[in-house]
User: What shape does this take?
Amino acid sequence: MMFAMDVPPATTPPENQSAYIAKVDAPKRGGSNPYGFEMEGVRSTAPGTTYYLTMVNKSALPWIFYVYQTFPEQTDEIFSLAWLASPYMIVPGAEITFKWEINYSFVWAETGELTPGVSFVAGMSIDADPTAGDTTNFVVQPGPNLTPAKPGNAPGTLTIYDDTLVPKQTFSVGIGMGDAGTFAAQAGANLKHVFTPTPSYWVAAGDDQKVGTVLDIQTVTQTAAAIYPDNTYALTATLQEDNTWLVEPSSEPH
Assistant: This one.
């Protein structure tokens, strides 16, 4: 894999350092691919199982390490978000470990026009379940909110219906894993948003990504799939001296 490398600036930590710490817990909550990526980033998706991902920097430069998701047949209207991100630069020789369970949520945020680089900070998060509570409505009266999730007509997907009063280019809606958003779409009057919760995980390195940063995944070049084989729940992703990723199974932290 070839990478177009950008030299990072001085090792100034991102402004928001509150989202995650060195041992990071994602909070628990109860066809064709237009991007050209292989779409099997996670093979084992058992709910209630804890997954671990340790990211190690063996390159010559400090980086923000982050994780994002994609799903099959992801359309141009649905943006991937930086889901997990180190709250500071990971210097050469350092590492960070993330852990999470597969628990879905519906989210909304006031983003203005949803474009790459915008920050998606959830204003509300409610539980979502692809087998039971898979449908919600986004309404703006008396204030922006999501209605309680209920069974819909397409089990296996997560669907959001926008109310007729939703203004243009003001809000965005999406889904998350834990309380952090994973995918977002621009909300608007009478729109329907369908998400397929069969995520692929991707590791990446950058210089200014934060949790919730809207990504243009067609331009994320320093990246690699993090594939969990069957009955494997821990991976180590190492950014090597040549700035390529080595992703391999590892022991679960104790």
Summary: The CA atoms of residues 120 and 211 lie 8 Å apart.
